[in-house]
Structures are given as structure tokens and as C-alpha cells.
Amino acid sequence: MTPAPSAYHQRVAQEKRALIVRAATELFLELGYDRASLARIADSAGVSKATLFKQFPTKAALFDAIVGDSWAGNDVADVPPAGDLTAGLTVLGRRYATLLGQPEMTDLFRIVIAELPRFPELARAHFSQGKLPYFETVRIYLLAERDAGTADVADPELAATQFLGMISNYLFWPSLLLPDWTVTPARTTAVVEEAVRTTVARYGAR
User: What residues have CB less than 8 Å from 43, skipping those under 6 apart?
Assistant: First the structure.
């Protein structure tokens, strides 16, 4: 029976994984997904090819890890309890704003957009493993509020799209085209609060 790795070896493996993911993101942006070979990524990360292949046997697996890391955190899969539409949407909106504010999120979208004509599977992976699970969290939450009688939502999918769109259209999408686009924490809070108020005004149970 193979012994479990020690805490030290687990930490070293995690540190090397982070180096690989960071190096891959930078090279995908610089060279493109196709030209950034795994060997070159290993060299840039300062790890051996054997170490890289052990964690990521294919370039697609490495890209999946970049997607997962970009969308991870902030308990994105946790659905707030139903009963207070304003409070629940505020939690979801703040989480989304935090995710979109990560520098690696902008990098990820730029990679996907740049490689879309040649590698449409990258966009599908990004959507299915990143955006879709978060979108589903919002949709399921709105369904729960409808069932609780606190929201009048005939089309939860459309309502979730509207809510998230109000946030991303100000906080995120301009940054892809305008390198100097910055949003202050106070402005971020205001954007989320306005999205919540608009959604509650439209879908809150009368």
C-alpha cells in the first residue's frame, strides 16, 4: 500500500502546481495556447517536465485547472438561504464582483477570446466549468425564493442572466478593452447594490 504523502510533500506539490498554473497563464497570453508547449511551461515554472506531467498530463488538463482556479473561492457553490431576497442577492452579487475583480479572471477571458477560432473547446470548458456553475447557483437561489413566496420569478434563467449582467457589464467587460479601466471598492459596492435593488424591484413578491 502506498503511504500517504506527508504534509511537507503536499505543500511542495501545491506550491509547484501554483507555479505551473501561473506560468501557463502567462505563456498562453504571450504565445497563444497552441505555441505554449508543456515543456516550455515547465521550464518557465522552474519545474521538471516529469513534475508537470504528473500533475497535468495534457495541455487541456492544465487549462481546466486555470479555469477552476479562476472561478474557485468565495463559496461560489453555496446557495444563500431563502426568505430575504435582498440579503441573498447581495451575498451572490458581492461574490460575483470579487471573482470578476481578480486579475486572473481578465487573463482567462483574454486567452479564451484569442483562441476561440482555433480552439473552441477552450470556450466550452470555460463556460461549463466556470461561468455555468456560478450561474446555476443564482438560478437555484431564485427558484428557492420563488418557492418560499418571496420572489415572483417566471423565468429564473432569464432573471439570473439579468442580475449577473448588470454587475459584469460595469465591473468586468470594459476591462477587456480598456487597460486603464479601474473601479474603486466604493463603486463596486454601489454597482452590486443597484443590481440588487433593480432585481428586487422587478421580481420581489408583492
Answer: none
